[in-house]
Amino acid sequence: MEIKGIIHMIKKVVLEEIRNVKNDIEKKVKFIISKKIEKLRMVSKEEYEVQSEILSNIVKKISEVEKRIQKLEKIANFKPHYDD
């Protein structure tokens, strides 16, 4: 076997091993990041936007209810004075 052939075989094996190590590292890093994100309880941008919209609607409704309560309190405290 020629030296070029041996070098080619070694190069092929080494490159394959490098790809395997790269893939293993990527999988482990993705797993670790996934676990850290899960631990932080992060949400996707879409989920965040949906929750923000829901919260905004709730705040608006609470504000409306507070205004209605204030009006009802004014009515309840209104005591007409009749002159006899």
Could you describe the 3D structure shown?
With 84 residues, the protein is mostly helical. The protein has two domains: 1-42; 43-77. 85% of the residues lie in helices and 0% in strands. The chain is built from two helices and no strands. It is rod-shaped, with a radius of gyration of 35 Å. The model has no long low-confidence stretch (mean pLDDT 88). Pfam families: BMFP (PF04380). InterPro entries: UbiK. This is Ubiquinone biosynthesis accessory factor UbiK.
Could you list some keywords that capture this structure?
84 residues; mainly alpha; 2 domains; 2 helices; Ubiquinone biosynthesis accessory factor UbiK
Helix content: over 70%
The helix/strand series, from N terminus to C terminus, equals HH
Mean pLDDT score, rounded? 88
Strand content: under 5%
How does the overall form come out from the CA principal axes?
rod-shaped
Domains, number: 2
**DSSP summary, beta strand count:** 0
| Total number of helices | 2
